[in-house]
């Protein structure tokens, strides 16, 4: 605390900062929550990528299989 006197001789006391600015506290809390949510989402995404089952392929139709075999020169069974 510093004590000053003005031109009229009245003393006034200049007080230092009392703690953190409330706006800064709100900013830190909100920023922390946003970072926590982003980190959690990323962790869940990575976990899902590792644990999800392989994608099922569509079955190839008999018509397409026959066409591919004819392209390769192998006769289709039953012909």
Automatic annotation (TrEMBL):
Q: Name the UniProt key words of this record, in alphabetical order.
A: DNA-binding, Membrane, Nucleus, Repressor, Transcription, Transcription regulation, Transmembrane, Transmembrane helix
GO terms for CC?
nucleus
Q: Which GO terms describe its biological process?
A: regulation of DNA-templated transcription
Where do the TM regions start and end? 24-48
Location within or outside the cell: Nucleus
The record's principal subcellular location, in a coarse class, is nucleus
Q: Region Disordered: which residues?
A: 51-79
Q: Which Gene Ontology molecular-function terms are recorded?
A: DNA binding
Specify residue ranges for compositional bias: Basic residues: 52-69
The answer to whether UniProt assigns keyword Transport to this entry is: no
What's this protein's family per the entry? Belongs to the S1FA transcription factor family.
Task: Relate the protein's function as given in its record.
Answer: DNA-binding protein that specifically recognizes a negative element (S1F) within the RPS1 promoter.
Q: What is this protein called?
A: DNA-binding protein S1FA2
Q: Which organism is it from?
A: Acorus calamus
């Amino acid at each position: 605390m510093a004590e000053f006197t003005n031109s009229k001789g009245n003393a006034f006391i200049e007080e230092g900062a009392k703690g953190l600015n409330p706006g800064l506290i709100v900013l830190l809390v909100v920023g922390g929550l946003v970072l926590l949510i982003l980190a959690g989402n990323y962790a869940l995404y990575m976990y899902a990528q590792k644990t999800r089952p392989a994608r099922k392929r569509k079955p190839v139709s008999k018509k397409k299989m026959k066409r591919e075999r004819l392209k390769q020169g192998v006769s289709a069974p039953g012909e």
